Structure formats: structure tokens, C-alpha cells
Amino acid sequence: MPKMKTRKAAAKRFKQTGTGKFMHNRANVRHILTKKSSKRKRRLGQSAEVKKTEISRMKASLPYGLD
User: Fold this and answer.
1) Beta carbons within 8 Å of 64's beta carbon, 6+ residues apart
2) In 3-state terms, what secondary structure has residue 13?
3) DSSP state of 63
4) What is the per-residue pLDDT for 35?
5) Biggest alpha carbon distance in the chain?
6) What is the mean pLDDT of residues 14-22?
7) What letters, b where the CB count within 10 A reaches 16 and e where it falls short, cover 17-26?
8) What is d(CA 61, CA 11) in angstroms, rounded to the nearest whole number?
9) Do 11 and 63 form a contact (C-beta atoms < 8 A)?
10) Could you give the C-alpha distances from 17 to 2, 21, 28, in angstroms and in order?
């Protein structure tokens, strides 16, 4: 059976923690920042964990995980 391919778009967008969880960057931080509060912008700058419901899709996209 051939090797499975990694989806490169997913590999560029996600990071894997030491425990194997996947982290992603939050949306809505690129432009139109004047109407957003400082607190909201600070929170948007932090990475977030991928939700449990999306993990099966992550495993399909990244069959060998991230190095």
C-alpha cells in the first residue's frame, strides 16, 4: 500500500503540542482592528486548541502528525 500524503495546506496552518494536541491561529486579526477592543485583539493573538469534533479531520489531513 502506498504512503499517505500530508495535506500541505493543513501542515502550514497547524502546530502540534508535545502531548499531541493541535493548535491553530485565530481568525479576525488581519484588518478592521479599530473597532475591536484591546482585550479582544490580545486574545486573537493567542493560539487556540482544535476542537474535539475536528480531530478526525486533522488525522486524515495529517496522517503522520507534524514534526
Assistant:
1) 4, 6
2) helix
3) T
4) 97
5) 53
6) 94
7) eeeeebebee
8) 8
9) no
10) 28, 5, 23
20: left (phi over 0), alpha (psi -120 to 50) or beta: left
Q: What is the pLDDT of residue 66?
A: 85
- Contact between 58 and 14 (Cβ < 8 Å): yes
Q: Please, which pLDDT band fits residue 45 given cuts at 50, 70 and 90?
A: very high
- Give a three-class secondary structure readout of 14-55: EEECCCCCEEECCCCCCCCCCCCCHHHHHHHCCCEECCHHHH
- Cell numbers at 61, concatenated: 489531513
* Model pTM score: 0.83
Q: Are 48 and 23 within 8 A, CB to CB?
A: yes
Q: Given a cut of 80, is residue 67 above it in pLDDT?
A: no
* Residue whose C-alpha is closest to residue 22's, from 65, 6, 32, 43: 65
